Amino acid sequence: MQSCEISGDSTDDPLSSGLRRKRQPRIVVIGAGLAGLSAAKALLESGFTDVTILEATDRIGGRVQSVKLGHATFELGATWIHGSHGNPVYHLAEDNGLLEETTDGERSVGRISLYSKNGVAYHLTNNGQRIPKDVVEEFSDLYNEVYNLTQEFFQRGKPVNAESQNSVGVFTRDVVRKRVKADPDDTEAVKRLKLAMIQQYLKVESCESSSHSMDEVSLSEFGEWTEIPGAHHIIPCGFIKIVEILARSIPESVIQLRKPVKCIHWNQSVSKEIERVADHNSDLPEEDKGSNVFVECEDCEFIPADHVIVTVSLGVLKKRHESLFHPRLPEEKVMAIEKLGINTTDKIFLEFEEPFWSSECNSIQFVWEDEAESESLTYPEELWYKKICSFDVLYPPERYGHVLSGWICGEEALIMEKCDDETVAETCTEMLRKFTESCESSSHSMDEVSLSEFGEWTEIPGAHHIIPCGFIKIVEILARSIPESVIQLRKPVKCIHWNQSVSKEIERVADHNSDLPEEDKGSNVFVECEDCEFIPADHVIVTVSLGVLKKRHESLFHPRLPEEKVMAIEKLGINTTDKIFLEFEEPFWSSECNSIQFVWEDEAESESLTYPEELWYKKICSFDVLYPPERYGHVLSGWICGEEALIMEKCDDETVAETCTEMLRKFTGNPNIPKPRRILRSSWGSNPNFRGSYSYTQVGSSGADVEKLAKPLPYAESSKTTPMQVMFSGEATHRKYYSTTHGAVLSGQREAAHLIEMYQDLLQCRS
Fold first, then answer.
1. What is the pLDDT of residues 624-661, one digit of tens each?
2. Spatial separation of the C-alpha atoms in residues 502 and 505, rounded to whole Å
3. I need a labelling partner for 496 at 20 to 30 A (CA). Which of 323, 677, 689, 737 fits?
4. How far is CA 323 from CA 265, 316, 567, 568, in A?
5. For helices 563-571 and 703-710, what crossing angle results, to 10°?
6. Closest by Cα among 334, 216, 154, 221 to 698
């Protein structure tokens, strides 16, 4: 017989109040995305029983969004499992049979491998010319050589000449241009084509980084992102299956949907807030009045907690960190939030009755010749479509139909999100017509991506995989082990009251919750939801996006986040990368084509990849052919990022479809390309629950800012302060694997491991 002893109470021990002996620690996880579900699953499997997940929307999965269109599954959010060796998402998919339908063509080892089979990418200019294959190969070799140079600044500690040059976009453009212009073997016409291709490649890179422009991405930090070895995979049945698997083991009562959080009252604020909490919850248990944290929800409910795990996006933190935390976040964390980057990357799916592309074509890459000398990739609002980098052909057509998947990112993606479907479809159609006449960083432009940090991102070894049944299957697998009661949908959080703020909030909570148990009044944290419910907790795990943190950190936390964390939120980058799927009745591309890459010859000397709003479509870098057609039908998948993606989001489907069609017509020199019969696109930038696609190391930020963002609150090493009241997870909090699904999963497991270690005596005793 095993005995278990717990040391006697000590006035200096933050756990001495009977937390270990009398009850389970109360843990609130904010966000039911991959990070939140992974954290909750790990905690529940380790013996924790008082776990609550607060989700602002009516669904789980966060930035995993698999949508059925006809007989196929399309990914508006997460698309690939990046690498397989040690990748927890890959192992979830493999163990649950989600990759059985994956074809060899869907296992890619390339860096930028949007859906496509091993076919041919068509690089088309806005003058309707296809750039010769040998010119594309020569330029690709040069670009990849310079890309490898960007990795060396972080990986080898190579110094950046000046802060003004600490930009992936600026460095890449300068080096590539000099080499192109100095090549004695090329004619002036070929040089101009290659100069225009620089902007198209940087648009794709911006979609990868989800920055508005690669000018925003830090050169000194770019190499810190780490690639997991192995192929990249898709999940044919949908990435959402991963979400379902995670949720499967979580009781239904744990997850509260439609439960947005208003403010997290923590640390010092707890004592000040306890009276306000008590006002809202007259029957608040006495025990909850001593909680470390109170999570204030938009519905006026206050939830006491010992620990809160925050998994919201970096975009949410950027927007809301000042209001989301009370007291405000430490300056170090604020600085990290502000310095790190996040932007919008959206997808646009266009479905056609028949393909207008050849069977060899796997993508249509848009090269704007007038951008050869451009410095910026920011366009006027009416030109948002110029940020669409390409349309990929979804393959196989038997699965997807005749569908093109476009990508757009940055500010132009936000403009796209405002458009109605008709406008987006019409714009994309016109763009395809124009280009057929004869997107990866979710930055707005690669100019925003830090060169010094670019190499820190780490690739996991192994192939890249898609999940034929949809990435959402990963979500389902995660959710499978979580009881239904754990997840509350449509439960947006208004505020997380933590630390000092809880005591001030307790009276207000009591007013709103007359039957609040006495024990909840001693909670460390109260999560205040939009529906006025207050949920007490010992710990809160915040998993919202960096975009949400950027937007809401001031109101989401009470007291506000420390300045260090606020700075991290503001410095890190997040932007929009959107997908545009176009489905056609029949393919207009050849059977060998796997993508159509747009090269604008007028951009040969361009410095910027920012377009006027009406030219948002110029940010579409390409359309990839979704393969196999037996699965997808005749579908092109386009990518657009940055500010132009936001412009695209404002357009209606008709406008986007028409614009993309015109673009394809122009670049392929084929004026007879029909409008797609269906369009499907993402709108991550304008969605208030995400405010961007995924994070990147923005110019001025570093991997250290990621660690500051991830650091639990409160910071103070006081023996009388309960540690880890508010914890942060989500892709933006993983230093090596930010912007990835495996980074999100690992970050959730990381925060759960901290709590498991903290309560190991209690858990061993219970077992």
1. 999 889 889 999 999 999 999 999 999 999 999 999 99
2. 5
3. 737
4. 10, 11, 15, 16
5. 130
6. 216
331, 342, 316: which is closest to 57 by C-alpha?
Answer: 316
Helix (H) or strand (E) holding 641: strand 633-643
Distance from C-alpha of 308 to C-alpha of 602, rounded to nearest angstrom: 52
Q: How many CB atoms lie within 10 A of CB 287?
A: 22
Greatest alpha-carbon span in the chain? 85
Q: Find tokens 């990508």 and name the residue.
A: 407
Q: Which tokens hold the place of 735? A: 């230093």
Report which secondary-structure segment, H or E, holds 424.
helix 422-433
Residues in the chain: 767
Q: With contact defined as beta carbons under 8 Å apart, do 576 and 720 qualify?
A: no
| Separation of alpha carbons 295 and 525, rounded Å | 6
| pTM beyond 0.90, yes or no | no
CB neighbour list of residue 564: distance below 8 Å, 6 or more residues apart: 329, 330, 331, 332, 333, 334, 335, 336, 708, 715
CA pair distance 199, 413, nearest whole angstrom: 17
Ranges assigned E (strand) in 14-111: 27-30, 51-54, 66-69, 72-75, 81-82
Could you report the per-residue pLDDT of 483-497, keeping only the tens digit for each? 999 999 999 999 999
User: Alpha helices of 156-239 — where are they, by DSSP H?
Assistant: 168-182, 188-209
User: What H or E segment, with its residue span, contains residue 578?
Assistant: strand 572-584
**What are the residue ranges of helices labelled H in 300-410?**
314-319, 331-338, 397-400
Angle at alpha carbon of residue 693, lines to 692 and 698, rounded to 5°: 75
Integer Cα distance of 427 and 433 in angstroms: 10
Least Cα distance to 211 among 580, 609, 542 occurs for 609
541 beta partners: 29, 727
Band (pLDDT 50/70/90 cuts) for residue 101 is low
117 pLDDT higher than 60: no
Residue 284 CA: distances (Å) to CA of 289, 304, 524, 533: 7, 10, 14, 12
* Angle between helix 502-512 and helix 269-280 axes, rounded to 10 deg: 10
Position 107 scores a pLDDT of 54
CA pair distance 601, 603, nearest whole angstrom: 5
